[in-house]
Predict the structure of BIG2 domain-containing protein.
Amino acid sequence: MKYRTLALLALAVSLAPITACSVLDPGDEIETPDAALTPDTSSDTADASTDTAEPEPTLVGLEISPADPVIEVNTALTLEVTALGSDGSELPTNDVVWSSSNEDVATVNEYAKIYGRGLGTATITATLEDVSASVSVRVKGKPVETVEVIPDDRTLQIGEQVELTVFLEDVNRSAIEDERDIEFVSSAPEVAVVSPAGVVTGVSAGNATITVTCEGKSDTAAIIVEATPTNVERVEVTPASDQLVRGDTVQLQAQVFDNNGQVMSDPDLTWTSSAPDVATVDANGRVEAVGEGSATIIASSGGKSDTAYIDVDFSVSALGLGAGHGCGLVQGIAFCWGQNDHGQVGQGTTGATAALGRASTGSPLDVISLGDAHSCATDGSQAWCWGKNDAGQLGDGTTTARAVPTQVTNASDLQGVSAGAQHTCGVTNSGQVWCWGKNDAGQLGDGTTTASTSPVRAPGSSFAKVFAGAQHTCALDTAGHAYCWGKNDRGQLGVNDTNDRNNPTQVLGGYEFVTLALGDAHTCGIGTDGSTACWGANDAGQLGDGTTTERHTPILISAPVSFSRLAAGHAHTCALGPGGDVYCWGQNGAGQLGLGSTTSRPQATKISSSADFTDVTAGGAGTCALDTSGKPWCWGAPSGVRVPTKVVGF
């Protein structure tokens, strides 16, 4: 409680004049008005009012407008700033301080007025107390008044280019140096095209106008494109090379380019062959392989040329022989010749005989085998057969003869195939043997004597190779053990009796073989030690043991050398020895031993020939062998020649 009034009263009393009559005696009381003694509460009331008043708002932010100012050089713009209080009110902005980040571009004064000094951008900042806000001001040049393009006309050749230069001026005819959006448009893009950077390219002969536009102002350039006098620059031939078999054709393509790099639509083009006896070429670039060797095919135009290299190979990689026909594989294609009364040469026709021709399967073949009057081959998975089919030996589910290769049904993964007289067998990559055709002696190995027009499986799953004779079949397992089944009237199964078998039965003797050869009624094999053993019929000396005694188990023959290949006909056997020599023994009535006579031989006898051989095959009463250049030589039936003679056409 304050007593300001009482204090003033006391002071007034002490200063009043004192007279003698007015001296106070001790004990006298001074009379004081009630007001003087009453406490002064007005101040207290004011103080209390001050203590409960609302606090003043504080600064929380600044806002500048416009937020994205754009001005021209040498012009000004005044910004507005708003100071935001904590209670949402606007606070005074008298003390705002302004600054520019780049005064070469824009300056700002204390009144928020910005002035464009130069092209570019600058950051303008307003600061009040410890709060700031900024905007980016862009200073641009003056609006475009005129556009000028240089050159304003140009003549181009096709493929030639020119870059247009654009000059911009403002209303004061001052050059505009800052970047502006410029658009280039061609009135005829098929004649001349223009890039976004103003590069014009001549496309074809004609006229085009290039219009250059900036901020609504424009100028044009007249472009004339002339066709350049064309000369041949180069010739390109595709394919650049190819390997063909005789009789193959291939269509070559040639493109002629002019000196502008354009393809000429109707060039004067000439085709020639360096070796017409190997490959011919017509006026349209169609090449036909007619002989063996190499040829260069040349396409010429306007003094320029290009070449394609053609290699014609007709070497045989595998050979098969039937009773009266033969086949060879050339680059995976079967070429056959000989008797064709059942279509066994596979050329789509039938007749007594057929010259060498193609039996096409559409898939590259790697194994071929011939029966008496049918042929079969495989590509390592699928098998195809053609020719006689009276017992279902083609495996297509019918007994209809086929004059073209026909795919065997329900058989896949076949890595090998072998044809007998009227049955066929194949072995899969997984070691299974499947057979089809005639089965009167159990030669299909399925436990029956019922013929089948589609493949049936013989027991066993570890076979590596299969071989078919006239009416019996043998297979080698992965260890080289021989198993045989089918006809056994002459002991050809090697099981020490003459009873037929309709299931695979192991050959006696414990031999391990690398290959076998099966004839009409005899069997021979080459052992892993290089020895040769034979068994079965021997009436013509076909076992090669020096006798004509029938053998019901394998007997080693006294061969002059170790053999690497074996082949068996009806009643004769031939083998390939070292150095490319061929040895034969057995029946020789048709000259099938190749010795120049018809005298049978009970022992292996070397054939005299100028050729060195790499393989030998036999069928019926004939024999064929491949020389080191892949050419087949044959003797015996059906030609009747008694010494090795090269097959015509290869």
Remarks:
- The first strand starts at residue 59 and ends at 65.
